[in-house]
Amino acid sequence: MKRCYLIFILFVSVLFIPNVFADRITHVFDEDWAFPTTRTPLFYGCSNSSNCSLLGNMSEAWDYNYSDDPNEIINRSYAYYVRNLNNDSNGFAFSFYPDTIIPYNANVSMNILVCNTGSSSALTGNPIRAYIMKSSGQWLNMIQSSNLLSSFTYDIWDRNSLSTFGWTFNNCFLVRTHFRAESDFLEDTQVGFRFSGSGNIGTFAFLGYQLSINGIDITNQIAEQISSIRDLEESINEVNDNLSSVERIAQDNSDSLSKIVEHLEEAGDPNLLGTQNLKFTDSNGEISVLPVYYPSANYFKFYNVTSNGYTDLGTSEQYDFNDDGGAIPFSTKYFYTNVSGKPAYPNGLGVQWTSSYLIPSDFKVNVDAIIGVNTSNSNAITSISKVYAGANVGFHEADLVSDFDSMITRLDSCPDSFTLNDQTCYKVSVQFTTKNAIERVGLVFKSSSNISLGNWLTFYGYDINTLDVDSKISATWRYSEDEPFVENSGASYALSQISDLFDNINDSSISTLVLSPLSFISSFDDACSPLTFTIFGSDITLPCGDTIFWNRTEVQPFKIIWNLIFGGFSLWFVTTKFIKAFEGWADPFSDKVEVFDL
Amino acid sequence: MIDIAGETLTLIGTFIVDWIFKFLTFVVNLLLAPITLVINQFFPDLSNALQSITNFFDYLSDFPPFVISYLGIDRTTMTIIVLMLSTMIVVSIGITTYKLVIRWFRVVR
C-alpha cells in the first residue's frame, strides 16, 4: 500500500519538476511580455554608423517566407528574415511603437527579447544604441544620439538557444536597457535598437518587450490593454455573428410563418371554419363591427350544466340562405340549441369550444362573444357564472384559471347576418388568467328566468386575445399540431429544480454549528485576503504573503523547489495519516461503521 | 500544460468540495429540522448562542488562507489536502447523524 502512496506523491511532484529544470530563457515566457500589435515593427539595414535604410515590415516578412501557422506567430512575435546581411560593424536595427506614452524626463527600463536563427556569431547581441523617432514615416536616417534620449545603458541578461513557434533560434538575447526620456514619447514615437552583427543572421525575431517607467512596471498594463482590444474585437465578431444568426432565425421564422399561413389557407384549420365580421348595434345605439371566429360543429357543443355535472346537448347548425334558397357554406353560419323537449336549465347553459391553439400559462385572456336567445325576456342572460378551461372532454371545473371577471352587455340589435325571430343578443366579455396551459374555453350563462323549452341559444362567434402577464406583450399563438408549446426542456428544468433545492436551504443555527469545522477546513484553500486590525483607533492592514514575497518574479524558481519539498512533504504526511483512517473504516468490528444493527 | 493540469485539478477538487458541502448541509438541515424548530420557538437565546459560535468559526476562517499564503504552499496541494480533510469530516458527521436518527427510531419504536 505504501508503494501506492509513493507513486501518488511522485505523480504530484512530477507536475512541478519540469519547471525546475527549465532554462531561464524559456522561463521568461511565464512573465508578462508586451507585443506591439497595433502597428508592426520595422526592420532596417545600416550601411554606416549614421544611416539605416528601411528593409521592410517585420511581420509581413515572417508570414511571407516561413510561417506554417501565421496567426500563432503574429500573436506572439515579429520577425524579419535576413540572409547574409553583411554590413560589417554597422549591423542592423529595428524599431517599434511601445503602445504607450512615456512622459518627459522619465527613467525608462526596457527589456527586449530578440533571437536569430543564423550564425551565432552573426549577432553579437550588443545593442550599439537605442533611438527614438518622432515620425510616422520611414526611418531612413537613424540619427544617433539624438537629444531626445540620454543616459543609455544596457546589459545582456541572458543568452541561450530557444525553440519556439516551430523555429530553433541559435541565439536569443534578453537585453535590458535603461535610459532617460528627454522628451515626451507620444503615440507616434518609435523606439529603435541598432545591433552590431555580420554574416548570415538568418531570421531575426523580436519576441516582446517589458517596460517600466519610473520604476513602475507597466508591461502587464500594456498586455492587458492589448488583450482587452483583442477581446473587444472578438466580442464584436461574436456580436456580428449573433446578428447574422438572428437575421437568419428571423428569416426562418418568417418562412415558417408563411408556410403555416399557406397551410391554413390551403388545408383549412381543422377547428375553425373561418372568421367573419359581426355587425350589430350596441347598447349605445351605435353600429359596431366585431371580427369573430366561429368554430366547426365538431369542436363546439352546448351543455346543460347541473349541480352534479353536465349534459351534452349537442350542436345544431343552421346556414343563412341565399336568394335561391341554398345554403352558403362558410359564410353566415351559426349554432343553436334545439331545446325542444328538453328540461329547463336552472343552473345555466354552457358553451364550450376548442381553441385551435394552445394558450400558455400566465397569460391574460380576454374573450368577447356574441350570443343570442330567442325569448321575449330581455334579461334572459344576466351573468356568466363560471369559466371552464383545459378540459379535454366536456366540462371540468379545473383550477386552471384565476382573476376571473365578466361583463354582459345587451345589444340593441343582433348581428344582421341572420334572420331570426325574437332574438335578444348580448355581448359577453370574459377575462381571466391562465394558471396552466389550456386548449379549451368554456362559459356558463345564467339567467334570471330559465331559458326554457323552445328557446334557442345562438352562439354567433367569439374573439379572443391573450397577453403575457410578465412581458406584457401580446402572445403569438402557436399552432398546436405543428409546434407543440414547450416551456422548459425536461433536463434543464430538473437541473434548475435540483439547484434551487440545494441553494434555497435556509441554514439553521444548529446545522451550521455542526458543519462549522467543515467550513473552517474548506477555508484553507480560499484565496488570501489582507487582514485588517483596528489598534488604537487606526486600521492596520497585513498584506498576504503572496503579495509581498511569493508572487515576485525572482522568487518563482525558489517557490517551485519550496513547493516540491514542503508541499510534497505536507501532502505525504496528510495522505499517509488519512489513508490509515480510511483503512480503519473497513474494520467490521469498529462501532464507527456498525450502524445497520436495528 | 502543467498549469492546465494544476488548474483542472484545483477546479475539480473545488467542485467536489462545494457539492459535498451542499449535500451535507441539506441532509443535516433535514435531520435536525425538528430540533431547530424547537430551539427557535422555545429557546431563542440558545439559538443566538449557537449562532455566535458559528460566527466565531467564520471569523477564524479568515486566518488559515493568510497563514498559508506565507507558507507558500501551492493551491493545488491545498485543495487535495482540504478534499481529504473534508471527506474525513463528512463521513464522521454523516455517520454520527445517521446514528442519531437510528437512536431516535429506536426510541419511537
Give the rounded overall mean pLDDT of chain A.
63
Approximate shape of chain B = extended
Low-confidence stretches of chain B: none
> What is the CA-atom radius of gyration of chain A, in angstroms?
43 Å
Q: Which structural class do you get from the secondary structure elements of chain A?
A: alpha+beta
The sequence of SSEs of chain B as H and E is HHHHH
| Biggest pleated-sheet summary of chain B | none
Helicity of chain A, as a percent range:
10-25%
The end-to-end span of chain A amounts to 35 Å
Content of β-strand of chain B: under 5%
Q: Give the number of DSSP strands of chain B.
A: 0
Strand content of chain A: 35-45%
List low-confidence stretches of chain A.
14-27, 60-76, 134-149, 264-273, 319-333, 338-344, 390-398, 471-492, 593-598
Average the pLDDT over all residues of chain B and give the rounded result: 74
Choose one word for the global shape of chain A.
elongated
The gyration radius over C-alpha positions of chain B equals: 18 Å
Roughly how many Å apart are the termini of chain B? Answer: 59 Å
Helix content of chain B: over 70%
Please explain how this structure is put together.
The complex is a heterodimer of chains A (598) and B (109). With 598 residues, chain A is α+β, with helices and mostly antiparallel strands. Helices cover 25% and strands 37% of the residues of chain A. Chain A has helices at 2-14, 17-21, 24-27, 58-65, 70-76, 219-267, 490-503, 509-514, 516-522, 545-550, 556-585; strands at residues 42-48, 51-57, 78-82, 92-96, 107-116, 123-134, 149-164, 167-181, 189-197, 202-213, 216-217, 272-281, 287-295, 300-305, 310-314, 316-319, 333-336, 349-359, 363-373, 383-389, 401-410, 424-434, 438-446, 457-468, 478-479, 531-535, 538-542. The C terminus of chain A is likely disordered. In chain B, 92% of the residues lie in helices and 0% in strands. Chain B contains 5 helices and no strands. The radius of gyration of chain B is 18 Å and the shape is extended. Chains A and B meet through helix 7, helix 8, helix 9, helix 10 and helix 11 of A and helix 1, helix 2, helix 3, helix 4 and helix 5 of B.
